[in-house]
Amino acid sequence: MRVPPVTNPAELFEKLFVTDSKDRQARRAQENQVQASILDSVLEEANRLSKKVNQEDKAKLDEYLTSVRDVEKRLELRQRWTNQPKPKAPFDKPANRNAVEDLPLLYEMIALALQSDSTRIATLEIGGDFMPQHLGIKKDWHGLSHHGNDAEAIANLITLERYQIEHYGKFVARLAKMNDGERTLLDSTTVLFGSGMGDGNSHKNSDLPILLAGGGYKHGEYREVPREGINKVPLCNLFVDIAQKMGVEIDSFGSSTGRFA
Amino acid sequence: MKTAFGTSRSSRGARGLLCFALATSFAHAADDPPKLVQQFLGKYCLECHDADAQKGDRAFDAFALPFKSVADLIEARDIIDQLTLKEMPPKKADQPKDDERIAMIRALRDGTVAAHAKFQTTGSRTVMRRLSSREYENTLAVLFGRRVDTLGLTADFPKEKTTEHMDTIGKSLVTSGFLVDQYFQSANRLVETRLGKPATPPKDWKFNSHFVQYEELQGSHKSAFNYRYLDLCEQPNTDTRQGGYGHIEDFLKGVPVSGLYDLEVEATALHRDTHYDPAIFGIDFSEPFILGVVPGDVTKGHIHYPQAIEPLLATAVVPDNTPTWFKFRVWLEAGQTPRFIFPNGPFESRASVVTINKKYQDEFKSDVGSSGVGRAHILKEGKLPHIRISEIKIHGPVPEKPSAEELAVFGKDGFQEAKALGQLNAFAEKAYRRPLTEEDKKPIRVLYEKRIAEKAAPRQAALDSLKLILCSPSFLYLSEITDESAKALKPHDLATRLSFALWATPPDEALLAAAKSGNLTQDAELKKHIERMLSDERINGFVNGFIDSWLNLRDLGSQPPPRETNRAYYAEDLPSSMKAEARLFFRDLLKNNGSVAQFIDCEHTFVDKKLAKLYELPEAKTLRFADGFQKVSLKGNNHRGGLLGMAAVLTVSANGVETSPVTRGVWVTENFLGFPPPPPPDVVPAIDPDVSGATTIRDRLAKHRADAACAECHRKIDPLGFSLEAYDAVGRWRKKYPAANKKTKPAEIDTTGEFPSGETYTDFAGFKRVIRDTRADHFTRHLIRQLLTYTTGRTMELADDLPLDQLQEKVKKQGLGLKTLMVECLMSDVFRSR
Fold first, then answer.
1. SS3 of chain B: helix, strand, coil, percent, to 5
2. Which residues in chain A have their CB less than 8 angstroms from residue B176's CB?
3. What is the Cα–Cα distance from A25 to B631, expressed in whole angstroms?
4. Strands, E assignment, chain A
5. Which residue, of B229, B232, B419, B655, has the greatest Cβ tally within 10 A?
6. Residue B740 and residue A150: Cβ atoms within 8 Å?
7. Do B689 and A140 touch (CB under 8 A)?
8. Phi-psi region for residue B232, left (φ > 0), alpha (ψ -120 to 50) or beta?
9. Neighbours of B523 (CB within 10 A)
10. ipTM of model
């Protein structure tokens, strides 16, 4: 399930660096307490209902019960997060500009968040609000992606994509300069870049452009794997590797057929 | 399990033909259905669909009567569909004679009916479903007696998962920890902002200076008139954002508490008669300027940009040249500040300044300097069309005793400490939509007392108990508790199902009373309520939700067309008008019990001025924006009529940039006829769009179909989309594809096509005729299925085939009226069972 994103640098800055006022902390604690009592109560109620409902509804109610237990854990984490002092902000709260100009700033804050261990996972989506006009191109991205093999449209797309790759490169370089104990932060961070479409024009979802950096993998090569037949290696195999490396105990994901390596 | 070529179950047309005598050659086999099936398959199907070839992923070697599994039944249904549509065997292969075809269909149908009894005990039950985000918000608005869209309670909820675009299916409405957490956050915010606010005496604010605007406008507004005016120069949703939202700089913190506020605004429409080239602005200057009010929250995002919570609070038409006072009473939440918009304002302000400098520089008397005419010059002496606000007064919160929320939640006397538990129980009864048991009451009492023990004030303890009720599974889920053996819904569950189905809100008092008396489960009483609810305004809850689901219009707008070639789409917010047309058309058929055949073809539709322009109707000249939507005749119009000629459908079935007979054909077969095509095979040669003009999509598809694996599906899909190529990606009629550049000639559009069953057409009108003459039953069938799917909250299964047959028969006999169809569906056992 897609968790709603933080949509701009200012909001991300607040989450990472701004400690709540004492007043607000007290109110949060109060809210958390009420929520904990409510969770206890609805858990009991759902258990009671579970004895009455029909077979086909049990599974649904279990889904609710599992969710409630999950929130209990979240609540603990949230309480800890509220009380924990935030890392010192290295710069002032930024003003939001646009998805193009904000991209380097978002990467920088992700690097800082990883470095300060405020999070261990970050996802950055470059979506429909990435407007080419901010790179001097008076076309919209969606229209350009259906380039119809028009040379000018392709040239524009290259400009957009180069900008994105460059900042990805800078981000990786930044992580390589940050320390994480004995290693660099890049050594302990797997950084995946890519797109869900191999070619926007034909809308094909094979031959995806995927870059993998960091994480202590063996790098520096273009890995071509069988793409057809019984031995074909789906991208999902790589995701299994990444998950396992992060300590998630799974042996399959999506359409995976095994591990990548 | 494969995805079938069709999930539609029956073949009305074929059934009608069953009375024909069978030809002699099959007469002996007809007495022995298993043999007949075996012979038919051997003669016409196995060549391609045996274990070796498995064309279309199908092998019928082991397929035989009597059916042994649900998989067999699905297979049988597919074969019936293919034979009915005459899509199989393929045209180049030997064709069965009509009597053979019919005998085969009958054998498979009889076999299916016989097998039904065996498999009927599985499924066909609605899985306990929770309220969808949409229903959840509606429900809170009813329970709290006032709009809640100003709070954006579900803005952070995960997007709902859908099944066949339906957002009411119990199985796919999943609950996660994230969502359960959000339920509490939402309840907390709603209860605290609306019932926990401190008593606040009304206050007055007045603003007539220091109207600092969007960053880029500040220099010019300061130099032109020292921030004396708030100028709105463009519509709110532009790319370049140069002041689409006018805010009050000295009121950024917004109102102190949620409440009703009286807003007085002095505004003037300026230069609507501008002599500048109208193309610069891209709007209709014959229309008066409109001023709108939306809330903004400086803590939730940029005050000049669109924000997640932005319901339109008020609008007014602004007279030209004369400053005029407007008075609005609007609801604002704590922290919200009013923002002013110009919804029919110029398309883009930044570009207009550049063009004015270029084209009209000589008109300016003042020395414009080396950088040319800037915004400040234009404000001082130019003719830039805009709305000017000169003064704003705010008064509030307007006292309400008791508030609408207090009244709705605690009753006419407001919260009473001495009656706290009784008041909370009364609220819970409304929230749970049924009488409470002692077990329901206990946790409410326990939490209330616990909060008191924790030194919370009684009112606060009651508010916290409200939050508990709003997080309870009894509130969030339509529980539908019946005995394991019983199938019929009990009265309260039926009332709830009916109400969410038709109004997308909880049952009203009349419905609850009928449930309480137990009468609701009786036919006459149920019918009375269905008819009452169908003719109530709230039926829009159904119409909007169902159309979004059935036609997938929820996705309208998700694939934006390029701005430069589709100005009106953005400047006039065409997607809203497109949706409105489909909704009004449906609503009108429902009201007048018009035949559902009119969805296929019809001599009227509903348009506003914007759609009339898009459709090139004569009404484009006579209609005004203020007229809204009107019913218009389409007599003699070959371009429009029926759902397939509606811009909403044509837009959602294209990708915003280019069109394709494939995506449109898939839309038609999936949403209109009810045969979802199988997904494309894993390895498929891509169809690479090309704008060089050398080939059209049609040429490329022909090449694609030359590949046998592709042809298998495309010969069925593409003919459903060829005639729709006469519409561009936003539903405008066209004769030619756009030219790639000035040198190439635009390619002509070929709108002819041939169905796999042999019918041909030359254009859209002919295409509709084929659908009407040969596939109308499939359309009706699909509509009934989708209607029951949406209203019951579950997908229709094999066991529903027979009841659906009977329903269709009944509706057809009564003339196919949409209202008849709905009443019959809602009166059916399928709807009334758990």
1. 45, 10, 40
2. 1, 67, 70
3. 58
4. 179-180, 183-184, 190-194, 210-214
5. B232
6. yes
7. no
8. beta
9. 9
10. 0.84
Contact yes or no for B188 and A35 at CB 8 A:
yes
CA B395 – CA B417 distance, rounded (Å): 32
- Phi, psi at B289, each rounded to 5°: -75, 145
- Verify whether the Cβ–Cβ distance B686 to A199 is below 8 Å: yes
Q: Which residues of A touch B564 (CB under 8 A)?
A: 138-139
Q: Is B449 helix (H, G, I), strand (E, B) or coil?
A: helix
Going from N- to C-terminal start, the domains of chain B cover: 12-119, 203-396, 553-770
Using an 8 Å CB-CB cutoff, list chain B residues near A142: 559-560, 562, 656-657
Tokens for B301? 């995002």
Chain B residue with CA closest to A4: the answer is B156
* Segment among B37-41, B53-57, B98-102, B559-563 with least mean pLDDT: B53-57
Cα atoms in the 13 Å half-sphere on the side-chain side of B520:
27
**Inter-residue contact B730 to B694 (CB < 8 Å):** no
Q: Among B388, B363, B375, B370, which Cα is nearest to B277's?
A: B363
- Locate B518 and state its tokens: 């137990």
Interchain contact B447–A (C-beta under 8 A): yes
Q: What is the pLDDT of residues B662-712, one digit of tens each?
A: 999 999 999 999 988 776 655 556 667 766 666 788 888 887 777 666 777
**Backbone phi, then psi, for A233, in 5-degree steps?**
-110, 105
Does B523 lie at the interface with A, CB-CB under 8 angstroms?
A: no
If you measure CA to CA, which chain A residue comes closest to B303? A96
Q: Map B81-149 to HEC letters.
A: HHHHCCCCCCCCCCCCCHHHHHHHHHHHHHHHHHHHHHHCCCCCCCCCEECCHHHHHHHHHHHHCCCCC
Q: pLDDT-based confidence at B122, cuts 50/70/90?
A: very low
B250 or B161, which is more confident?
A: B250
pLDDT tens for chain A, 261 residues long, are 677 788 889 889 988 998 888 888 888 889 999 999 999 999 999 999 888 887 778 888 899 999 999 999 989 988 888 778 888 999 999 988 889 999 999 999 999 999 998 899 999 999 878 888 889 898 888 888 888 888 899 999 999 999 999 999 999 999 999 999 889 999 999 999 999 888 888 877 788 889 999 998 888 888 888 877 778 888 999 999 999 999 999 999 988 899 987
* B172 C-beta neighbours (distance < 10 Å), count: 18
Report whether B511 contacts B499 (CB < 8 A): yes
Q: Are strands B324-332 and B314-318 parallel, antiparallel or unpaired?
A: unpaired
Please give the pLDDT value at position B541: 96
- Separation CA B797–CA B121 (nearest Å): 12
B316: closest CA among B292, B348, B284, B349?
B292
Cβ contacts of residue B433 below 8 Å, gap of 6+? Answer: B492, B495, B496, B506, B507, B512
Spatial distance between the Cα atoms of A61 and A69, rounded to a whole number of angstroms: 12
* Closest to B232 in 3D by CA, of B206, B265, B205, B259: B265
Q: Round to whole Å and give the CA distance between B734 and B743.
A: 20
A153-157, B280-284, B830-834: the lowest-pLDDT one: B280-284
B741's torsion region: left (phi>0), alpha (psi -120 to 50) or beta?
beta
Chain B neighbours among A 54-83 (CB < 8 Å)? 54-57, 59-61, 63-64, 66-71, 73-75
d(CA B436, CA B433): 9
Is the domain covering B203-396 a CATH 2.60.120 domain? yes
A245/chain B closest Cα distance in angstroms: 25
Lookup: tokens for B104: 């085969």
